[in-house]
Amino acid sequence: MAPVKVFGPAMSTNVARVILCLEEVGAEYEVVNIDMKSQEHKSPEHLARNPFGQIPAFQDGHLLLWESRAISKYVLRKYKKDEVDLLREGNLEEAAMVDVWTEVEAHTYNPALSPIVYQCLIGPMMRGVPTDEKVVAESLEKLKKVLEVYEARLSKHSYLAGDFVSFADLNHFPYTFYFMATPHAALFDSYPHVKAWWDRLMARPAVKKIAATMVPPKA
Ligand SMILES: N[C@@H](CCC(=O)N[C@@H](CS)C(=O)NCC(=O)O)C(=O)O
Fold first, then answer.
1. Tens digit of pLDDT for each residue in 24-57?
2. If you classify domain 92-209 with CATH, what class do you get?
3. Which keywords appear in this protein's UniProt record, sorted alphabetically (predicted)?
4. CA-nearest residue, atom 11 of ligand 1
C-alpha cells in the first residue's frame, strides 16, 4: 500500500506535529516538500489539497485532509495499537480529558507562546523583521498565567490528560521546541512540574528523532 503523504516543509511547526504522530505510531509516510518561498502553497495543485493555501496538507489514497490537529487525530486513529493509544477513545472520560487539553493547547497555550516564537525567531531570523519587544512582553505575561495552570495540573498528574501520555501532550511539541531556542526558554525553570513534563516528552524516541530534524533558526 502506498505510504500516506504529508505536504509541507518538515521543519514547519504544524507539519512537525503531524510527522511526530506518524513517528509515534510507527506508520510509513512520505514528506513532500512545499516551497513556501516560491508560493507553492498557493498553487492550484496545493489549493486542491488545502483550499486555504496553507501547510500542512495530507493524503491517504483518495482522502485529502488539512489542519494539523485534525490530520494528527486521523493518523492516531488509523494506526492505533494497544500499546500506542494516544487518543484513549475506548474510555469516555480519558478521551474527554485528551480533548480538553488538546483544545487548551490550540486556544490558550499556543496563542500565548507562539507570538514569542514568531517575534524572537521566525520574524528576525527568517523574514528580516525585527522583534517587537512589546508583543513579547505581553505574550510572556499571558504565558506565565497559562503555565501556572499547567503547573497545578502537572503537580497532580504526570501528563496533561492524566497519568498517561496522549496527543494532548504531543500537540505541544513543535512550538514549545522552538520556544526553547528563544532567549525566554528559562521561563520554564520557574514551573518545575511543567519543566519535568517537557523533559519527559523530549526523552521520547519519536520526539528525539523529529527534534533532530528541526534546527531552530539562530537567535
Ligand atoms: N491551523 C492550521 C494552521 C496552518 C498554518 O498556519 N500554516 C502556516 C505555516 S506553519 C502556513 O501555511 N502559512 C502560510 C499562509 O498562511 O499563507 C494547522 O494547524 O494546520
1. 999 999 999 999 999 999 999 999 999 999 999 9
2. mainly alpha
3. Transferase
4. 54
Q: Which residues pair with 24 in a beta bridge?
A: none
Overall pTM > 0.90: yes
Asked if 14 and 55 count as a contact pair (C-beta separation under 8 A), the reply is yes
Superfamily of domain 4-79: Glutaredoxin (3.40.30.10)
**What's the confidence (pLDDT) of residue 123?**
84
Concatenated DSSP letters of 125-158: III-PPP-HHHHHHHHHHHHHHHHHHHHHHTT-S
Ligand 1 atom with least separation from CA of 67: 20
Tens digit of each residue's pLDDT (9 = 90 or more) over 100-122: 999 999 999 999 999 999 999 98
For the CA of 17, the closest atom of ligand 1 is 19
- Domain map of the chain by residue range? 4-79, 92-209
Separation of alpha carbons 19 and 68, rounded Å: 10
- Closest protein CA for atom 1 of ligand 1: 67
